[in-house]
Amino acid sequence: xxxxxxxxxxxxxxxxxxxxxxxxxxxxxxxxxxxxxxxxxxxxxxxxxxxxxxxxxxxxxxxxxxxxxxxxxxxxxxxxxxxxxxxxxxxxxxxxxxxxxxxxxxxxxxxxxxxxxxxxxxxxxxxxxxxxxxxxxxxxxxxxxxxxxxxxxxxxxxxxxxxxxxxxxxxxxxxxxxxxxxxxxxxxxxxxxxxxxxxxxxxxxxxxxxxxxxxxxxxxxxxxxxxxxxxxxxxxxxxxxxxxxxxxxxxxxxxx
Length: 256
Ligand code: PEP
Known about the structure:
This protein is α/β, with parallel strands linked by helices and 256 residues long. It has a single domain, classed as TIM Barrel (Alpha-Beta Barrel), CATH 3.20.20. The protein has helices spanning 18-32, 46-55, 82-87, 98-103, 108-120, 133-137, 141-152, 158-161, 182-200, 202-207, 221-225, 242-254, and strands at residues 6-11, 38-43, 61-65, 92-95, 124-129, 165-168, 210-213, 232-235. Helix 1 (18-32) links the parallel strand 1 (6-11) and strand 2. It is globular and about 45 Å long. The mean pLDDT is 97. It binds phosphoenolpyruvate. Residues 11, 169, 174-175, 213-216, 234-238 line the site of phosphoenolpyruvate.
């Protein structure tokens, strides 16, 4: 069986000034900046990206953005592009987060254009999918996730797929304190791995990381991270303090 390097990403959302972000990154770097067992990414808001990037220089912690536009430049007031992110040495970008989908109306088609633009610019997408509570209760979870995965990754080739990190985030578990059970999470992760196998072949799908996101905390992480197809976490609330974020990295490193 292929062993995939665990991956922990912090999604700060609309939190932290530039100065607050630098302080947080410094603490994270001090604690886990030299380890290489777990891939660690922080995703500050745009105004804190560049300063956070400087603060993590020389460490193994990587820089990700929370969104981007699919065009490289032009008349798109309020947007930023993949080349702009590359220019400040971002390596990852969260795309299709449920808050972007529900609050800002992002469709699978739009997310797909962003995924393709990120890959074209050598940015690794952290591509988010997940069902709402109503969809889960209607028994539609797998169908919803299948549509999001297939549409969101349309036109991605095998080489591109190897750079994609998928994040399964049940919408009802994000920021709510309600975490999916390990069985619920593992079921969907295994299903997603099957979809990736169909799309990109088994060897590629076996290499791709699939993260869980939704109220992951140091207390529930070890059990989730021990599941066969759960390769890490996309962390919201618990990424805003160095202590809890570092504990999550440590929990991921402890999984054998
Ligand atoms: C997220 O927003 O991606 C997330 C998982 O948030 P939280 O950890 O706060 O549920």
